[in-house]
# Entry
Amino acid sequence: MKTTITVNGEARALDVDTRTTLLDALRETLHLAGTKKGCDHGQCGACTVLVNGTRINSCLSLAVMHDGDAVTTIEGIGAVGALSPIQQAFLTEDAFQCGYCTPGQICSALGMLAEVAAGWPSQETADLTAPIQLTDDELRERMSGNICRCSAYPQIVAAIRSVSGLPA
Amino acid sequence: MSSVADWEAASNPVKENRAGNIGKAVDRYEGPLKVTGTAPYAFEVELPPSASGPPLYGVMVSAAIASGRIAAIETAQAEASPGVRLVWTHLNVPEQGPRPERYDFFTPSPRPALQSDRVYFFGQQVAVVVADTFENANAAAAMVKVTYEADAPMADFHAVRDQGVQPPGEQDTEIGDFAAAFAAAPVTIDDVWRTPLQNHCQMEPCATTAWWDGDKLTVNTSVQMVRFAQNSLAETLMIPSKSVRLLTRYIGGGFGGKGSFYEDLVLASLAARELGQPVKVAFSRQQMMHGTVHRPATEQRVRLGATPDGKLTAMSIMTVTHCDSRGNFTEHASNFARSLYAAPNRLTGHRLVRMDLPVASAMRAPGEASGTLSLEVAMDELAEKLGIDPMELRILNEPETDPETGKPFSIRQLVRCMREGAQIFGWDRRTPKIGAVKNGRWTIGLGMAAAIRGNMLLPAKCSFTVDAEGVITVKQGMTDIGTGTYTVLAQIAAETLGVPLGDVRVEIGDSELPPAPGSGGQFGAATAGSAALDAGMNLRKAIAEIAVADPASPLYGGPSQDITFQDGVIAIANRSERLADLIRRNRPEGLVAEGEIRPAADARNWSQHTYGAHFVEVAVDTVTGEVRTRRMLGVFAAGRILNWKTARSQLTGGMIWGVGSALTEGNAVDPRHGSLINQDLAGYLVPVQADIGELDAIMLDEVDDKANPMGIKGVGELGISGAGAAVANAIYNACGVRVRDYPITPDKLLAALEAKGL
# Structure
């Protein structure tokens, strides 16, 4: 089925199987393998990408559902030699070990910071009327959809905090 | 062969650390690739231009019984399904090398796939479908109809644990007269702890991309042991090892579970040969749970006898565990106790029962991870009975020499780990009174435990090349499973050859490079790094000989043993030149040196371990049974640290694994079907961000000159050892109940609270 998805700013015309997930379209059709398959069931977050600025699990979404959407993957966030601030922060804080969950963590963190800026509450948000304070508990709650089996969790918190620009 | 005394006596650039590369918090060498998503893992590698066509996709079909045989297997519908190129079952898979009766951890042997109609465990692979797309392969795999003749599986560990036998080649160790001493002891503990099956849950499922170029096979796969996998695959395919090039440059987590390899590697290789086209095969997350390996369940009986003033007189830990029906793996949960505390009368051992369960094997700190969950809680119980602080009880029973063998310790800073940790953590704020500290709905408790994990050194080789630009390239058939191998090898090379870190390249994960055992048992850095140091020393010698023999060099005619290497410059006294200039004149094609490490002949004359102490603050909601880890500190002594940043990350990661083992992790077995009920990441609960509060790891200054020429040890498994016990002890301090059946989930905690009327 013909579908056009804007990926990292570039319109990509695809002819994909209706069963193809957005994740597999990115990885296997467009050869953007930075987005990872960890469980294929929306349980680990390794496949997190931004769709029109919102983070989603790309394994739980079919490519044909994204005609006209703008998708940002890790490849659209920065490159070797031109790391984005959050990629640099992950490197500096050692916020990964094996690196397999890392693209998803970074996409998820960017989506999460936008959600906080937009005032979306979480379970940890005590006051729904006040501006959200990105406490460590808020941050941890909001990043709990991204598993890191190497368990770089404290380092991930430090990395995100260093670029969040928000008061603790 | 070297002796430990040679290592202690000889200085070397790593020990001298003149440029300060060793120990430094260097960013990961391959980090920029990982944070940009451009490190290619096994399923993602670009195919070479010579590859004939796009990749085909293989999807495996897994057995739905735990024991029995395949009565019929229908593949016609799958074969006729769109895009399908082949369907293999035991009836038509190509011939492979025969499986040995038992696998050995370190000895390569054939690992054939789809071998017969016999099913030995739930989730065993019984068929593979290869098609032009993943979607077509996946759809066709669902059309393979398997009819089974199932036997009733022996799958209920706790029902058959009495059938456990002595593991092959082992015996119990008894010192003194344990039974008499335990019977006579005025204060005793006698309890049983259970730990469940646990799964590695590496983020990257096992995967292989394979292609052939004539008779030469290239496989990109995700394994911890390069040569073991290469040789075993060659034996499986019945081809010479040199016909297999195995690449595993980026590995999305290992933790022991990729110490061997699985059907993805074999079937991708066979299908690529059959179809003349590259083939990719990956495990699904669900297949990972059953079809790879797991940490087996244990039941551990711990008995402690002590004098009223806290001296242990008797100590025993006896473990019953299980492996698969054809296996020989034993989870040695009792072993660590042999070196931990002094007690004149001691008994330790294991019993193993073979069951119709998936394959048991090593998972991060095999033995210690399970065993500390019992003994380190038993010590807490004993401390309470004696009215002694749990840390002081441990210090009272600190041995001067190895309590079983009498051998001296190479170095042992366990007490210092505890003392320093206690001070930083604020252990003095702990009160033995249960539930003394409240905070809203939370009751706060503090707990601690000791950590111990053995140390190993294995044989390895390495090569160093210096090119005409003065760039050093380290080559080794080693792996980096997230441990930091790339980075520490670069640091060793930079320090040894006196070049900036940016002038070092590291090539690993390739079977055509000098062999190293790989990653596992926290022996990686010491083993690979010691071979690298030797290669670096040999390259220094080769460079020095060329320099003093080259009339065009300012160093010409100088004493080669006086040459120094610093900032990319070689010098003898005030005569110097750039290393690159020397190489460009003399060896424009590059200069190579090789090195190797072997264990010292007398290495076993010392009892050698890494140590640590964990301190945890938990909050328990006694109404819901919810437990939160609020603060956690580990203090560790593990030899010289090569890289503060990557070592600390391994330790904190291990500590979080300990939290998982205490609170959430475990595969529930359905005894009727021999299956794991929770077989994905929604059911098998690894810790996530919200589960982990403040957490830090501190590494003490230490050099263990008896360990290897660098005085380093491993840290990958130390962090988990004891961490879960500290959590369990903190829970007791908070709410006064002990759940000895891990994980300590809210249902068990609530039942225990209710039983005590709390």
